[in-house]
Write a structure and sequence with these properties.
Low-confidence stretches: none
Distance between the termini: 27 Å
Number of strands: 2
Mean pLDDT: 87
Strand order of the largest sheet: 1-2
Structural class: mainly beta
Shape: globular
Strand content: 5-15%
Number of helices: 1
Largest sheet: 2 strands, antiparallel
Radius of gyration: 12 Å
Length: about 70
């Protein structure tokens, strides 16, 4: 486990056992949300999802038809 020092919310998300295998973490349309109580959620911000697609997909998501590769830095 880590020492609790994270540079970003994504770093924190990658430490969560349930989120480690999720394709959401490598999608450019995700946003990592950390609640005041320390819970971590992955918000889907894709413009291509239908209205019935959940804003916060159940994790871990192993495949997604709306996944988009992250832009290289």
């Amino acid at each position: 486990m880590s020492d609790g020092n994270f540079e970003s919310a994504d770093d924190l998300a990658r430490e969560q056992p349930l989120l480690r295998g999720s394709v959401c973490l490598s999608c450019r349309d995700h946003r990592t949300i950390v609640s005041g109580r320390g819970s971590v959620f992955l918000l889907c911000q894709s413009d291509h999802t239908p209205p019935q697609w959940p804003k916060y997909p159940r994790q871990p998501l192993h495949s997604c038809p709306y996944w988009s590769a992250e832009d290289p830095d």
